[in-house]
From TrEMBL:
Its EC number is 1.3.3.15. It holds the Pfam family Amino_oxidase. It comes from Nocardioides yefusunii. Involved in coproporphyrin-dependent heme b biosynthesis. Catalyzes the oxidation of coproporphyrinogen III to coproporphyrin III. Transmembrane segments: none annotated. The gene is hemG. The keyword NAD does not apply. This is Coproporphyrinogen III oxidase. Pathway: Porphyrin-containing compound metabolism; protoheme biosynthesis. One of its GO terms (molecular function) is oxygen-dependent protoporphyrinogen oxidase activity. The keyword Flavoprotein applies. It is found in: Cytoplasm. Its cofactor is FAD.
Length: 454
C-alpha cells in the first residue's frame, strides 16, 4: 500500500514510522524546512536548548515508550516545586488536579486564595454529584466555579490551563481538556476523592530527553528515513482528491503525489482545506477549531546574575491572567533539568525561559521581539526581585501554537471522524489531547484505523 502522510510534526512522523514498519510505502510531505513541529531545539549562546515543548507527561506511557524505543535517554525534572505569582508574591503551588484543590490545609498554607474562598472549598463535600448526559458538555471554569468559587478558577485553574492549552478555562471543554474532573464530579465531592489522585511522590509527573525534546523529532526523522520513507520538505499540500480509485495530493509548488491512502497530520486549518472537496462536513467542523498564538522567550544570563533565582528553590512559576501581567509563566530551566544546568555551567551561563500569549489576548504578540524580551525581563524582576541582563536571547513565535478545545469538542471530533471518506485518516493535537503522549496515541489510532480498512 502507498500512503501519503501530510505534515511532519510529531503525529506525522509517528504515523509514517508505524506504516513503514508494517511494510507500506510512505511519502511524508512537510510544508516547512524541518520536521518535528513544536519539538524544536536550537542553539542559544552556543548551548542547544528547547524553544518549543520541553517536557512530556510521564504517567501516560506513549511518549516515554517511544523515546526509549528510539534509544533516547529519558530524564525527569530535578526540581518540580512550582510557584504561583499572585496576590503580590510568589506563592507555593498547592496540590491540585489542574488547579482544583485537593487538600484544604495545603491550600490555606499556600495563601493563594482568600479566607472566603477557603470556606467555599471546605463546603464542597456538601454538594451533590454533577452528571453530564451523553453529548452534554460544560467548560472547565464553569464546572470548577460551581463547586469551589470563582477565585479558585481565576488564581489556580486559569494559570495551569494557560500552561497546557494557552486557553481560557471558561471556554475550554471539561470533557476534552480535563476528563478526570468530569469523572470525579459525577461521583460527588472532589475533595473526598483526593486520595485517588496520584501525587508527585508516587511517580514523576513529567519526563524529558537529555539534550532536549528536539532530539525526539530528530531521532524520529532519522528512523523514518532509515525505514525508506520518502520525506519531502517545502511541500505544502494545497488540495486532495480521488482519481481513478486513488488519492491525489497536490502541493503549492505544483507537484502531485498519489497514494492508496492519505493520512492528514497537519494543523486543523490545513486539514480543513484538504478535506473541503472530499469531506465538506469534516472540513467545516475542523474550521471551527481555533488556535492560540504564543511565544517562548529563552534567556541566557551570566551565571552569577541568577543567584537570586536559584535561592527561590523552584522550577519556575505560573501567572494568573487576573494579575494583568504580560508573561503567563516562567520556567527556570537551570533548576528543572539537570542537563540544562550542566550545559549552562560549562558555558558560564544560566538558562531560563518565559512564555507569552493566551487565546483571545489582543495586542501583546503584535510587539516586536525586543519588546517581548523587555516584557519578560520586567515581569521577572517584579516577580523575583532579580533584574537580569541576558548575554543572549531567543524569541520563538508559534503562530498556530495550541488548538483550543471549545465546549463540545469531543462531539465535534466524533463528527469529523464519522465524516471521513474511506481511505482518509486524521491525527494530531487538534483531536484527543495536546500533549506529546496524546499526539502519539492519535497517530497510532489513525494508523490502526487505516490498517483495519484494508
Amino acid at each position: 500500500m502507498d500512503v501519503v502522510v501530510v505534515g511532519a510534526g510529531l503525529a506525522g512522523l509517528v504515523s509514517a514510522r508505524l506504516l513503514a514498519a508494517e511494510g507500506h510505502q510512505v511519502t511524508l510531505l512537510e510544508a516547512g524546512d524541518r520536521a518535528g513541529g513544536k519539538l524544536f531545539s536550537t542553539e542559544v549562546a552556543g548551548v542547544r536548548v528547547d524553544v518549543g515543548a520541553e517536557a512530556m507527561l510521564n504517567r501516560r506511557p506513549e511518549g516515554v515508550e517511544l523515546a526509549r524505543a528510539l534509544g533516547l535517554e529519558v530524564e525527569h525534572p530535578a526540581l518540580t516545586s512550582s510557584r504561583i505569582w499572585t496576590r503580590g508574591e510568589l506563592r507555593r503551588l498547592p496540590r491540585s488536579l489542574m488547579g482544583v484543590p485537593l487538600d484544604v490545609d495545603d491550600l490555606v498554607d499556600s495563601g493563594v486564595v482568600s479566607p472566603e474562598t477557603v470556606a467555599t472549598v471546605r463546603a464542597e463535600p456538601t454538594l451533590g454529584p454533577v452528571v453530564l448526559e451523553e453529548g452534554q458538555d460544560v467548560s472547565v471554569g464553569d464546572l470548577v466555579a460551581a463547586r469551589f468559587g470563582d477565585e479558585v478558577v481565576d488564581r489556580l485553574v486559569e494559570p495551569l490551563l494557560g500552561g497546557v492549552y494557552a486557553g481560557n478555562s471558561r471556554l475550554l471543554s471539561a470533557r476534552a481538556a480535563v476528563p478526570q474532573l468530569v469523572a470525579f464530579a459525577a461521583r460527588g465531592s472532589l475533595l473526598r476523592q483526593a486520595a485517588a489522585v496520584p501525587t508527585t511522590y508516587d511517580s514523576p509527573v513529567f519526563a524529558g530527553i537529555a539534550g532536549g525534546m528536539g532530539r525526539l523529532a530528530e531521532a524520529l526523522l532519522a528512523d523514518v528515513v532509515a525505514r525508506g520513507v520518502d520525506v519531502r520538505f517545502g511541500a505544502a499540500a494545497s488540495s486532495s482528491g480521488r482519481v481513478e480509485g486513488r488519492w491525489v495530493v497536490d502541493t503549492e509548488a505544483g507537484e502531485t503525489f498519489v497514494g492508496d491512502r492519505v493520512l492528514l497530520a497537519a494543523p486543523a486549518p490545513v486539514q480543513a482545506e484538504l478535506l473541503a472537496s472530499v469531506a465538506p462536513d469534516a472540513a467545516a467542523a475542523l474550521s471551527d477549531i481555533e488556535y492560540a498564538a504564543m511565544a517562548v522567550i529563552t534567556l541566557a544570563v551570566p551565571h552569577d546574575q541568577a543567584d537570586g533565582l536559584r535561592a527561590i528553590g523552584s522550577s519556575g512559576f505560573l501567572v494568573p491572567p487576573i494579575e494583568g501581567r504580560r508573561i503567563k509563566a516562567s520556567t527556570f530551566s537551570f533548576a528543572k533539568w539537570e542537563w540544562v544546568r550542566s550545559a549552562g555551567e560549562a558555558a558560564g551561563l544560566t538558562f531560563l525561559r518565559t512564555s507569552i500569549g493566551r487565546h483571545g489576548e489582543v495586542g501583546v504578540l503584535d510587539a516586536d521581539d525586543a519588546t517581548l524580551v523587555q516584557f519578560s525581563l520586567d515581569d521577572l524582576a517584579d516577580a523575583t526581585g532579580v533584574r537580569l541582563a541576558p548575554e543572549t536571547v531567543h524569541v520563538q513565535r508559534w503562530e498556530q501554537g495550541l488548538p483550543q478545545y471549545a465546549v463540545g469538542h469531543v462531539e465535534r471530533v466524533a463528527r469529523i471522524r464519522a465524516a471521513l471518506p474511506v481511505g482518509v485518516q486524521v491525527a494530531g493535537a487538534a483531536y484527543d489531547g495536546v500533549g506529546i503522549p496524546a499526539v502519539v496515541a492519535s497517530a497510532e489510532r489513525a494508523v490502526v484505523g487505516m490498517l483495519q480498512e484494508l
